[in-house]
Design brief:
elongated, 7 strands, 1 helix, alpha+beta
Length: 149
């Protein structure tokens, strides 16, 4: 048995979305394609990690072209903005279930003070965007040696 981290806010949004979808289907009598947890878009999953030398942000962006992602850092806030476009609709297919989300997204992450925004680098591999932002020398922790008398 594995341990799963409880995310109350995300779980509540998910329950709300499921209830909305249930009532929409009940009153309209037909099932429309799901468009993600946020009206008109979706949110990519993001991890933020910190080491002594840098901040690393990874974002899952499957199916999003690199030229459709805008990355900015202003006032110690990293913002990812873009759009995941739906594939061309095929008239011959009868979908039984649609779970893939499409639409625009925007994620903003507050960065700690002391990062070098002008030296940030971004790379994308296998649908995962990795952004590394080095810290300034002043922001790095200092080791202080204790003198023994």
């Amino acid at each position: 048995m594995s341990i799963i981290r409880w995310k109350p806010r995300q779980d509540l949004f998910s329950i709300r979305d499921e209830m909305n979808h249930l009532f929409d289907n009940f009153f309209t009598g037909w099932q429309e394609p799901r468009r993600g947890s946020i009206e008109g878009g979706w949110n990519p999953c993001i991890n933020v990690a910190e080491t002594v030398d840098q901040i690393t942000v990874t974002a899952e962006l499957p199916g999003v072209k690199q030229e459709e992602v805008d990355i900015t850092i202003a006032n110690d806030v990293l913002t990812l903005k873009g759009e995941k476009k739906e594939e061309a609709e095929v008239k011959e297919k009868n979908y039984h279930r649609i779970e893939r989300s499409y639409g625009s997204f925007q994620r903003s992450i507050s960065l700690p003070p002391g990062v070098q925004a002008d030296k940030a680098k971004a790379a994308c591999k296998d649908g995962v965007l990795t952004i590394t932002i080095p810290k300034t020398e002043e922001a790095k922790p200092k080791q202080i040696k204790i003198d023994v008398e």
